[in-house]
Amino acid sequence: MNDTKLIQTLKTFTKDEIKLFEKFIASPFFNKGRNHLPFLNELKKFYPLFENENLTSEFIYTKLYPGKKFNKQVMWNQVSQLEKLAIEFLLQTALKNNKLERFIIVFDELSNRNLDKQMLKEIETADKNLPLVKYGKDYFYSKWIIENNKADYWTSLKGRLDKSFESNINSTEYLILNLMADLSISVWDLQIIKLMYNAGKDISNAIEYVKNLDLKKFVEAAKENNHKHAPVLMFYYNKIMCALDENEESYFFEMKKFFDDNYDQFDKLEQKNTLISLANYCAHKMRLGNRKFLKLLFEINKFRLEKGIDTYGNRRIDKALYHQIIRNALSLGEIKWAENFVKEFTSKLIKGHQKTMSSLAWGYIYYAKKEYANSLEHLNKVGFIDLRDKLHVRILSAKAYFELNKSELLYYYIDSSKHFIGNNDEIESVTKQAYLKFFNYLKKLLTVKENPDREKQKELREDIELDKVLRLRHKNWLLEKMDQFI
């Protein structure tokens, strides 16, 4: 029974929520005349872990119906009905906590019943419940809903166009702000998918649609009229353009400056999304060979961790961010900082990712410490979660084999890696070219190391230096290895 949806739901309940749930299911409005309290009282004995061996349908049945033969259907009905009540309880709790959704539902119901005075009161209450200034798509959406309903109230119900004038203007402004906030998230999602995966024409077409919007007019109009939200519009415009035009770095630096100066004026979701955008821009510029963004990314990562931004409940962290932070710190020689990060934040990954990402992280760290055998030992423990994990392990393992002078094994590993990368259609074309280039150069590097030839070494070095496809970190490593034996 402990793997049922009911038990998985009850595991998330706090002690206070369990008590409220008891009252909830005792209400005839929700329980439809059925008494589910005895069943819940038996389940409560296993709270909060619900892992006791006695947590079975048969055992619970003997407690609910002593002396009766076990009836699987009866227990199935009990579980199913209590599960539905648990979901309904979560809905009621969410409505209580989410004042905007409550406002939308209540306002519509009051409107259907022509309860005008109550409608106006709901509008005023909803407006007061919003924070004064906490920028983000949720805030703009909420203000748009409130102002739009306020305009409808005065226009449609009261016939007072004069009273709806200001709300109509406000609702339009918040609609535009909400659009800009939404686009600033969507375009970055599209760009990351495009860069990381072989996403096809649909992604490119969607990006082109956004490029064809003349968003600059929104910003220029607000700026010319000294609108109070002009700086925020400019922030979102810069955020969008960072994704659409990577070559114009001014978008990035203007967005970053406004965020650095005003980050506490944004809600948690916008803080998180902005830091993701800033970090992704830095990572992409670094891949293109711009080393100055290494330090910028490190400072962004330190800031997000110190402030608890871009993490989830209980400071949870996702695997992509975890991996990026490790790589960035080690690129700057921050080995001790990286070790402390792994010790503190590995447990913040979801449970199924902890072992794999910890093994990968220590593989990187031991490589940075030049303990290559230890690095390979940890890399061999990596359980691949997705395709990119395989690419990371292949690159780092190849480097470790080179450092350990395992030439015969490395030749085989290079050919195997080229075959894996070249035949995998899921790898985005630019990434595929860059990784294949690395393994091609590594094979040539191994050859000129074992068979020294000054002319060939010089030619190989020039090819590597001039290569525009090779990733910066791979290029630097190859050139560093050449310097060691030339």
What report would you give on this structure?
There is one protein chain. This protein has 486 residues and is mostly helical. It has 4 domains: 5-97, no CATH class; 130-310, no CATH class; 317-385, no CATH class; 405-486, no CATH class. The chain has 25 helices and no strands. It has helices at residues 5-10, 15-26, 28-31, 37-44, 57-64, 72-97, 99-112, 116-129, 137-157, 161-196, 201-211, 216-224, 230-244, 250-262, 268-287, 292-306, 319-331, 335-345, 351-368, 372-379, 387-403, 407-422, 429-450, 454-466, 472-485. The model has no long low-confidence stretch (mean pLDDT 88).
| Cα shape | flat
Question: Which residues sit in consecutive blocks of at least 5 with pLDDT less than 50?
Answer: none
**What's the β-strand tally?**
0
Task: Provide the domain count.
Answer: 4
Strand content: under 5%
Average residue-wise pLDDT:
88
Q: Taking Cα atoms only, what radius of gyration do you get, to the nearest Å? A: 29 Å
Q: State the order of secondary-structure elements, H for helix, E for strand.
A: HHHHHHHHHHHHHHHHHHHHHHHHH
Structure class:
mainly alpha
Helix content: over 70%
Topology:
Layout: H1 5-10, H2 15-26, H3 28-31, H4 37-44, H5 57-64, H6 72-97, H7 99-112, H8 116-129, H9 137-157, H10 161-196, H11 201-211, H12 216-224, H13 230-244, H14 250-262, H15 268-287, H16 292-306, H17 319-331, H18 335-345, H19 351-368, H20 372-379, H21 387-403, H22 407-422, H23 429-450, H24 454-466, H25 472-485
Helix pairs in contact: 7-8, 8-9, 9-10, 10-11, 10-13, 12-13, 13-14, 14-15, 15-16, 16-17, 17-18, 17-19, 18-19, 19-20, 19-21, 20-21, 21-22, 22-23, 23-24, 23-25, 24-25
